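Why do we bother with holo predictions? Because pocket geometry can differ from the apo form. Keep that in mind while you read this record for 3,4-dihydroxyphenylalanine.
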Amino acid sequence: MKEKIERIRREIGEGMQGVTTRKQLFELKMQYLGKTGAISALSKGMRDLPPEERPAAGKLVGDVRAWAEEQFAAREEELKKEELAARYASEKIDVTMPAHLAGGGSVHPVSLVKQELVDIFAGMGFDVFEGPEIEQDYYNFQALNIPADHPARDMQDTFFIGGDFLLRWQTSSGQIRVMESKKPPIKVLSPGRVYRSDSDATHSPMFHQMEGLVVDKGITLNDLKGMLDEFARRMFSSETKTRLRPSYFPFTEPSVEVDLSCRNCGGKGCRVCKGTGWIEVLGAGMVNRRVLENCGIDPDVYTGFAFGMGLERIAMIKYGINDIRLLFENDVRFLKQFRD
Ligand code: DAH
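The structure, written out:
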């Protein structure tokens, strides 16, 4: 019996040296401690011993079992650590390795212009209001004093959806929504998409506008001019001048067309400004009395100015883009030029 036990201890010790995985360890363990293993066989063999020898033999078998279990458990721990270390080594990431750069995106030039305008006007105390793109006839036309026979109401210009609804033709509709819900003083900026049935090198069926509206006691055209000067200097350059020309919009009276001095020639006249030294950028004016009245604001107490500009147009002037379609084709060779 003793010999058998010694042999088992030796065999386990030797077998253990050849074990490199937990699976091999388990198999070895089963050979000795499994139901049909060598140590279990010893226990069973006790039956054949004379009764007086059994207690001593039982102790020997118990000892070897406890010893073997300890050996296997210790080796199991070691193997676990080794496996973990091997996994760490194989999954190690070298953070100093040069990164594989995926082509980064860039902010679209129209979004860049929008953000810049919002920044400039927010700095002058304007809030931002975004009205709905699907608009009612009332907000897009009637309340803005655009009569039923106005050419803009023609099917050729406006996308009518059906019933009373249309795709808004101008962000000016936002003016009405703001004045209906808020009493003066009002100072809002309303950027957004507008839709017109128009398409060529300078017109797109969908484009972006930015509307501005200021209503308070004692607002004059001079306030408009001062604010536009500040906008022109901040958006383009400190030398940029503004010029107001008489114009007509149903919702403003008087109405003006606003020009900026040409950045390309500094006002001398060139191809960009078609020899005039000026570039037309936006429409504006003093809010028509009727529009104020439509919104329940007393025009004898309050006055206001409004302006509306096309963001694509501003982007085209600012970045020297000659075809509006470049802004919508989303050719990455074009867009990546606007990466910071
Ligand atoms: N809504 C006009 C347009 O789309 C632009 C405009 C002109 C807006 C004068 C205004 C304004 O607020 O006062 O052509």
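DSSP finds twelve helices and ten strands in the chain.
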